[in-house]
Here is the input.
Amino acid sequence: MNHKESQDLMFDIVTEKSVLKQDVFNNVILNFKILKQVLKEIADDLRTRVGHVDERIVIEYKETGEYEAKVRVAGDLLIFQMHTNVFKFDRENSLWKTSYLSENENRGYCGIINIYNFLNDSFKYNRSNDLGYLVGRIFVNFENHFMVEGKRQLGFLYNDFINNVLDKDQLKSIIQSSIIYCLDFDLLVPNYDLIKEVSVRDVNKMIDDSRMRTGKRLGFVFKSNSDKPE
Here is the structure.
């Protein structure tokens, strides 16, 4: 291959992939804007309904940036975060064996929206050692086909990447499933042996910034369709 052919090949690769990734990115950011609207609508509706039962229960939506939004539901905090990069499915992924991807490899490039669950108090009291958990992640391609990799219903209700097309109703369903899962995912008492010894320095530090690490599950590792602590 001579220099001219190499230059032409580089041009073709750069322009083709750059255009594709821009198409994916633009589509994901559009969906993320819709997701934020839906999050606010769900929070507003839930806050109104819960307020009639107990005004102490806090339901709050907060947009924390172009690529991040939070919703607090009582003691739980869900963070929805859009990754700014575009990813390609691993070659070992079974989706490559489907006609949908084999007909057009570009369909295997996706943007990702991650869904995390934290305790609201972890942020309120700046407990930097507390744990949060990846509840699920939404994959979206340039044709707006999507799938969700996640826990419980998130892992099997939205896994038809070939046929599922993302819209406002689908986003609402995903958000509701995420909130339901997090509310049902309770805070467990830490093992006594993990916290039975503590130094004076640690106690003083805990008073200052609540150093003792807290999480719904200590030692939890994210795995699709599995809720078993590792």
Q: What stands out?
A: Residues 3-51 form the longest helix (49 residues). The two ends are 52 Å apart (CA to CA). The CA atoms of residues 5 and 53 lie 71 Å apart.
